Amino acid sequence: MKKLNLKLQFDNRGWYIFPVLALELTIAIVTTKMIILWALLLLTLSYTVFRNQRYGLLLEIFFMIGLGVCLTQQSNLKAPHTNQIIVNPDQLKLKNDWLSGVGQLADGQKVSFGSKIKANTRLPNSTLCLQGDFQWQTIAPATNKGEFDFQKYYQYQKIYYRGVATHIKIIKVSPNNNFLSRIHSFRFFCLQSLKKLPHWLSVNARSLLLGDFDSNETSLRQGLTNLGIIHIFSISGLHVYLLIDILIKITSILRIPRERVEIALLFILPIFAVIAGSGVGVWRASGLQIIQIIQKHLNWKISKHDCFAIVLLGQTVFTPYVLFSLAGQLSYLLSYGLIVIQAPKTWQRSILINFLSLPLIIFHSYSFSWLTFLANILLTPVFESLIIPITIFSLFIQKFKLLLEILERLFALIYTPVTALANANWTQITIGHLNIIVTVILLGLTLIWLSEFHSHWVKILIVVYCGCILYNHFPLSGQVTIIDIGQGDSILLTTPIFRKTCLIDTGGKLAFVHHKNTNNRVEQITIPYLKYQGITHLDYVFLSHQDADHIGDLHVLLQKFPVRRVCFADGMQNNRAVARQLRPFQQQVQFMKMHLGDTVAVAPELHLKVVWPNHLSKGINEDSLSLIAAIQNKRWLFTGDLNRANELKLFKSNYHIDYLKAGHHGSKTASDPQFLKKINPQLVLISAGRHNRYGHPHPETMANLKKLKIPALNTADHGMIIWNYSYWHQQTWKVFSKENIK
């Protein structure tokens, strides 16, 4: 059998200095107080100057100018005090009666905003000046482990504030008085035109040609991400090279000299990058092509590695956080992999590239699909030879409705099963959280393996991956986690080693919330945290009562994550709202009706006992399923939204509880002082939303706790709250944020 000849191709032209400078520049901008880093940076620059004074000095000046600009932009940011925002039309998102987007203030500061607006408002194809009663605040950070951090996401785009208005109006339509505004207006015109196509053709055209992914197609986007093929569906280098190839073929037919076409590309590519949505991938690919054209015409001798590193350095100066996002990391890592990995066949290179990207995908999403490798081999050619050409072809046949309908059905036949398969739980392999050191080690080992291609490196990689799985799937400690889901309840209980898992309530969105956050709490917070922990299923889900802020997202959890048993007080199944959520899942989940005195032995170190209700439940607050959890030598009490009168009925005499989950989010309708005296908890945990409309926790409740000298922790102040315990009876408390979260 012929041995596969794979090797990494390097040269010795000193290309290494560019990625080193780019990396140091990125870190320096973020960690400007690290003296050691600055010393390392100056040492690198001095070494460059020593080797070649002319180019070294040029690099140093280039670096200092870029750093100065970036730091100046960050240091001058102040809280906005204006009611006007300038917005390019293609940066607006209108969904029903909610308008959102990104714009600029008069001083040039970028901001995010959202406001109610009249449904189906027609937006002008021009730069807009919007006026509204904006309430400005810093973008909220993530407050749970595993949760996507929108604050960091926007900070990477130099956006630090968000304004929310109850109404907004266009007070001025600015003329397109500069070239960039005209490009944005043209992009907006294209977006509006492509929305007229049938659904799947429209989704394809807007994402593949303009870099605009339909916010309603979250299932498709998540599926493509799970399969690891989102890079071929989004604007990337593939599309830049396709554009160049089309232009060259057309101009060749027209007998236009190649040199003139290449000169024209120097101007066309930046314009195309803006029209295509200014994504990391399109700017990287455009930058590489521009440098290669310049070096060709000026007769410079720059290796591929040098071109790659110069583009990385340039993009780091203009976009300092480019390597802090998954898109930036994957774009440059995969691009670099294509440069250095030499494989005789395309499918072999595709597989190796996927191995290279695997550590980053796990680092960001805590899991990967075992279909990734197969999907890249099978679907990449389909996209290149079928989907992209058909998408472009559909732009020219918009008047032929029958033909469009045929193409629409073809795309539906492709995407419907792909989405279903990609989002299926059985296709996902959950690894759990990897810290950054382990991720770097895995990337390094993968590069070494690809360079030498010896089997012993594969064995080392397998050992490290298996070690990560064992560490996350067989933890040395158990936990009780008060998940910060805002105004609601969701508590996770786990045991050590052979982990068992229980979730008390799922949380959910209150009925009056119509905007701001369209994602449900389970998909946004709970499931990412479960995957972060390496949890692949839930053994038990306990439902306290009917309220949406406790079980509103139950149906989403049962649909999106494996659950073995759902437990609730007997009688609650007759509640229409509860039955509506349970009915679709009665074949795949075991339902358990709980009665007073029932005990669930989850594990030797975790038992749950029902202490309320003492009658058939109607699912209302007064019937809340109340549980005592005996965990090692500690007792927890969870009471849902149980009222004061029924709290006093739980125990006939004093019954010590170590930790109490405050009833009804700290409302004055719960946590009766006599009840608190009877159970005498060491600590009270409160789950409440920040700035919630109910004023939870109520000042009366907090005053009672203070009077009884009972300390309290509130998720609204500290985010996620975790109590860890181990077989060795070591117990620790952790909060997500030691400082109060605003």
From TrEMBL:
It comes from the Bacteria. SMART domains: Lactamase_B (SM00849). Coiled coil: none annotated. InterPro entries: ComA-like_MBL (IPR035681), ComEC_N (IPR004477), Competence_ComEC/Rec2 (IPR004797), Competence_DNA_uptake (IPR052159), Metallo-B-lactamas (IPR001279), RibonucZ/Hydroxyglut_hydro (IPR036866). Keywords: Cell membrane, Membrane, Transmembrane, Transmembrane helix. Residues 487-690 form the Metallo-beta-lactamase domain. One of its GO terms (biological process) is establishment of competence for transformation. It is a multi-pass membrane protein. It is found in: Cell membrane. The chain crosses the membrane at residues 15-43, 55-74, 229-251, 263-283, 321-339, 351-371, 377-397, 409-426, 432-450, 457-474. One of its GO terms (cellular component) is plasma membrane. This is DNA internalization-related competence protein ComEC/Rec2. It comes from Bombilactobacillus bombi.
